[in-house]
Specification:
Two copies of one chain form a homodimer. Chain A has 299 residues and is mostly helical. Chain A has one domain (5-296): Farnesyl Diphosphate Synthase (Orthogonal Bundle). The first copy, chain A, contains 15 helices and two strands. Chain A has helices at 5-28, 33-43, 50-63, 70-92, 108-112, 114-134, 140-154, 159-167, 175-200, 205-232, 235-238, 244-247, 253-257, 259-277, 286-296, and strands at residues 101-102, 105-106. A two-stranded antiparallel sheet of chain A has the order 1-2. In chain A, strand 1 and strand 2 form a beta hairpin. The first copy, chain A, is globular, with a radius of gyration of 18 Å.
Amino acid sequence: MSFDFDAWLSTQKTRVESLLDQRLNRVATHAPARLVEAMRYSLMAGGKRLRPILVLAFADAAARATQGGGEPANDAAVAVEMIHTYSLIHDDLPAMDDDDLRRGRPTNHKVYGEAMAILAGDALLTDALASVAGGPGGRPEVRAALTHELAYAAGARGMVGGQVLDIAEDRPAELDYLVRLHRMKTGALLKAACRMGAIAGGASTEQLAAADRFGDSIGLAFQIADDVLDVTASAETMGKPTGADADAGRHTFPAVVGLERSRALAKEHAQAAVSAAQAFETTPGALAALAVYSVERSN
Amino acid sequence: MSFDFDAWLSTQKTRVESLLDQRLNRVATHAPARLVEAMRYSLMAGGKRLRPILVLAFADAAARATQGGGEPANDAAVAVEMIHTYSLIHDDLPAMDDDDLRRGRPTNHKVYGEAMAILAGDALLTDALASVAGGPGGRPEVRAALTHELAYAAGARGMVGGQVLDIAEDRPAELDYLVRLHRMKTGALLKAACRMGAIAGGASTEQLAAADRFGDSIGLAFQIADDVLDVTASAETMGKPTGADADAGRHTFPAVVGLERSRALAKEHAQAAVSAAQAFETTPGALAALAVYSVERSN
C-alpha cells in the first residue's frame, strides 16, 4: 500500500493546531487578554501549516535511527508558525502591503488596529524564540542550536532582509535578483524548518546537509508555484485577491521568465527536494510527498 | 580611594558602543545595506546604555568568585540594547506614540519611512536573539538560558505586554496598575539585564535571587525617576519634548500619587537595589552606584 499523503497531512495539521493552541494558552496566563486575542486571531486562522509540518516530518524521519524529536521539535514547529504569522501581520500593515484580507478574513490591523497588530506581531516573534530557547525537555545545546537556526533565518540576513529587498524601489526585473530575494524572504524560514526538524531528530551530518538542500529547493519551488497560482488560480480558491502581485507592480517569476518556464523551474526544484529526501526515506514517504505538494497544490 | 563612578560609566559606555558596532558589522555582511543603515541609525544614536552596562556589571561582579562572563555576557549586553532600541523604534511609529524626535534627532520612520522602521525594529529584535543563542564561545546551556531570559522578558508576558497595557483605553489611574504596567514595560528588560549578567558570570543561586531583586527595584526606580524628569527637566536636558506624558493623557507616577510621593518612592526602590547589590559587593561599588544613578540622573 502506498503512502496516504492526504490522511497524513490532515493528521499533522491537527497535531500542529493542537500545539499552537497549547502554546497560546501558556502565554495567556501572564499576558494582557486583548494582546493574546490578537495573537490568536492570526495564529489560528488556518493555513497550510507547511512550516511546522516540515519540522515534525524531518524530526520524525531523522528520529527513526536515533532519538525522537520530542519537546524541542514540537516547540520549534510552533515557533516557526508563530514567526510566519508575525511576518504576515506586519506585511499586511498599511505602511507595507496595506492588505485588508488574509485567508478570507479581515487582516489583523483591520480588526485590532495598527498599534495592536504591530505589537501582536512583535509578541509572536519574541515568544516563539522564548519557547524554543527555554521550553521544558530536551538538551540545552539542542535548544540553543534550534533558536539560532530560527532567529538567524528570520532576521536581517533572512526573512526580514528579503522583505526589504521586496519593497526596494530599485529592484531589477531579473531572475537572479528574484531568486536571491525569495531565498531570503520565504526560503530561509522554510529551510530553517527542515534543518530544525533534522537537528531535533538527531540527524547525521549527511542528513543535515540533505535537509538543507531539501529546504532550499522546496523554498524556491513553493514561491514559484505561489507566483504561478497568483496568475492562474481564482480568488475563491486562494482566499485572497489574485493577480495582486502584478497589480502591485511586484516582480514575479511568471512576469520575469514567463509562465511555462516558471512551471518548469518549480518542478525542477521540487524534483531536487525529492532527491534530497532520499537521505531520510528509502522509499518515497512524507518528505517526498511534501516536495511534490509544494508545486502541485491548488492554493 | 572611593569608587570613581563617572570614569567607570564612561569606560563601560565606550565598551558597549564598540560591541554594538562590531555586531552591526557582522550582520551587515549578509543583509541589505539600507536595512543595516536603518538599524545602525537608531542603535548608534547614543543613550545611557544602562541595560548593557547592567549586564556587564553583574557579569563582572559575579565572575569575581567564578569564571568571567566572556562572550555570552558581551552578546547578552549587545542584545538587550538592540531589543531596547527596537522597542523605541516601534513605540515612535505613527500608529503608536507618533513621535518625531528621539534623542534630539528625527525618529527612525521620519528618516527611513514607516515600512523600513517596522522592519529595522523586527530585525534588531530577531538578530539580538540570534546572537545570544548562537554566538561563538560559552557553554550552550548558558546561551539557551540567556536567550530564554531575554525573550521571555521582551515578549507578551513582559515588555510587549506592558506596552499593550500602556495604550489600553480603559487603564485606571491607580498606583497598582502603574506598577504592574511598568514592571512589564520597562522593568522586565532591566531585570533580565541583571539576571543575564549574573547567569553569564556564574552567579550562585543566592546571587541570582539578589540580581532579580536588584533588577525589579531599579526598574521601578528608573521609571518613576523618568516620570519625575518628564515633569521637572527641560527639553534641552532630556533631548526630547518634556511634559509629553501629560499631553498624551498618559498616567504617570506624579499624576497618580503626586511629585513628592513619587520622589520618595523612587528613592525607596533605589535603596532596595543598593541593599540587593550587597550579595555581589562587600563595599559599595559599580552596582550600588548604578542603583543610586537610576534616580539621581539629570536625563
